[in-house]
Structure of Ribulose-phosphate 3-epimerase:
Amino acid sequence: MKHLIAPSVLACDFARLPEEIALLNDSAADWIHLDVMDGRFVPNLTFGMPLVEAINRLTDKTLDVHLMMLEPERYVEAFQKAGADWISVHYEACPHLHRNLQQIKATGAKAGVAINPHTPVEALFPVLEEIDLVIIMSVNPGFGGQKFIYHSIEKIKKLKEEITIRNLPTLIEVDGGVGMQNAQVLLQAGADVLVAGSAVFKAPDPKKAIQQLKNIGGLAL
Ligand SMILES: O=C(CO)[C@H](O)[C@H](O)COP(=O)(O)O
Ligand SMILES: [Fe+2]
């Protein structure tokens, strides 16, 4: 499968939201990554369902919603109704992860789990069959523009090996500090989806930056 690019709007100019989404609509972006932060699980606050709903009206792209919140089960249905196609919760925030995954799938959305840099991928192995997407956090969640944590590459490799052995359709997404400087290595390690915030929106030409990330490893399909 050709890898997917998911620009994160966290790094965009919210005062120009319709223009920023129009730019993504007119780009090689496959998904739009939306970072929801609750100010409790992570030390930052961003946005909730109203913004997801507004973005959903501005685009036909797949919406990839990354919930960095405690008790995500309280909002999963509302995010799906707002337009989320993929909903990911954090392993560290979910003592009942298996139940949370069932809940997400019952809404009709795809179910993802994000893991922090200190969480081993093996923690997900007992429920891997239930997971559509694993987000390997390659920074500590909470802020855009942070430095990539190198150890994440080993985690991608280990997870890819397990997914391949079990012949699962589970996708691997890498989130945090991703750009042209490490994209090739991440794809070689087994990543399927690259999230890029700063590398896209802080670039002089965001559309070109997306196309360059898409072109890695051959021509874009
Ligand atoms: O989940 C996130 C942070 O918690 C963001 O998706 C991530 O940081 C993307 O931003 P950048 O590419 O600038 O690192
Ligand atoms: Fe994210």
